[in-house]
Design a protein that fits this description.
CATH architecture: 2-Layer Sandwich
Number of strands: 4
Radius of gyration: 15 Å
Helix content: 25-40%
Shape: globular
Low-confidence stretches: 1-7
Strand content: 15-25%
Mean pLDDT: 89
Largest sheet: 4 strands, mixed
CATH superfamily: Methylated DNA-protein cysteine methyltransferase domain
Number of helices: 3
CATH topology: Double Stranded RNA Binding Domain
């Protein structure tokens, strides 16, 4: 098992693309796995993106604007928003607490078009 030293930084690449709903921020790791994907405030997308990226910087990640690295993911999101696809063909690499990881796993089981509640 290998681990990174605390001084090693993780390189993440990010880009923003406008969709008919709102601008979308994508953040991927070096293997193009999705780390963050978020619709941004249409009135202040750059400021909203910075709020999403700031915790990653504080955690020691190196962030690089790279539209090419995020192009495939953002194309799929745009197709999804336009109703041309019902799922995304991506590999996820979400970061969070064990509880957050469990929640995200359960969210991934919700079928397209379904509405569920905690109740």
């Amino acid at each position: 098992m290998t681990t990174k030293s605390k001084s090693a930084s993780t390189l993440l690449r990010h880009a923003i693309r406008r969709t008919r709903l709102a601008p979308v921020l994508a953040v991927v790791d070096e293997q193009r796995r999705v780390v963050r994907l978020r619709f941004l405030d249409p009135d202040a997308p750059d400021a909203d993106a910075e709020r999403v990226l700031a915790p990653l910087r504080r955690a020691g990640c190196e962030l690089l604007a790279d539209a090419r690295a995020c192009a495939g993911l953002l194309r799929q999101v745009d197709e999804f928003v336009r109703g041309r696809r019902t799922d995304l063909e991506v590999v996820l690499a979400p970061q969070g607490t064990p509880f957050q990881q469990r929640v995200w796993k359960e969210l991934g089981r919700v079928p397209y078009g379904a509405t569920l509640s905690y109740g």
